[in-house]
Amino acid sequence: MKLAKTVAEVKEAVRQWKKEGLSIGLVPTMGYLHEGHKCLIDRAVKENDRVIVSDFVNPIQFGPKEDLASYPRDIEADCKLCEDSGADIVFNPEVEEMYAENFTTFVDTTGVTEELCGKSRPTHFRGVCTVVSKLFNISEADRAYFGQKDAQQLAVIRRMVRDLNMNIEIIGCPIIREKDGLAKSSRNTYLSKEEREAALVLSKAINAGKKMIEEGERDGDKVLSEMRKIVEQEKLARIDYIEMVKWDSIEIHHKVDQPVLVAMAVFIGKTRLIDNFIWE
Length: 280
Ligand code: PAF
Hints:
The protein has helices at 7-19, 35-47, 75-85, 95-98, 116-120, 124-139, 151-163, 193-198, 200-214, 220-232, and strands at residues 2-4, 24-29, 50-55, 89-91, 143-147, 169-173, 237-246, 260-268, 271-279. With 280 residues, it is α/β, with parallel strands linked by helices.
């Protein structure tokens, strides 16, 4: 497995693979890889001849008061996980390699970015769409793999690919959870022991909402109100949002009468965690 630091190194490998008629899978990540990422990489390895894992903490998707500086990094451990999983390249560029000094081109997807995380983090998806577009161009991948934990991100990227006629298949993979239900996230490492315990309130609320719908509840507001009640009982938790939206358009929706995404962002202490379920 190769650790590539430059765009040119990745492009050179891609040129060779294309010449040989090999298919390419891309797993875009910000590193500090966990079981959730491993599932994406495993699937990419299974479905493609060659796999590139990008490992890049993308500064332009963080707001000015967010955790860019403290975002966890461990490139050695990441390379080991990628190598053990059968990836071919880990692409770990410096910021200057991805963004030249006079970088002025951005990809901005509207509509699907207006609610949920797009509302709380107004410049976030512009940063995500821009870096993901660059990664698609650099890797010329046939398929790219994204986790459903960032469900809105998955919807936004699917929309961008459709709207801009990008020649790539987007594959969404299920949320991977710890044994006790907490969705795996690199940001879980920020939690103290007490906060880690408190964070279980997210999956507790998710399970409760899902169960209500499974048992026949079709009034979205009742489902959300029960979920909010559960989260509010935890004193370390502060709700950013708990909402139901149409799964394709990410518009607020109040009835379970079509595929819906029920999504939440909750601060546990200073750490903002997200979780969701999709009802199809
Ligand atoms: O989901 C992530 O880790 C990031 O948003 C992504 C897709 C790698 C873009 O930086």
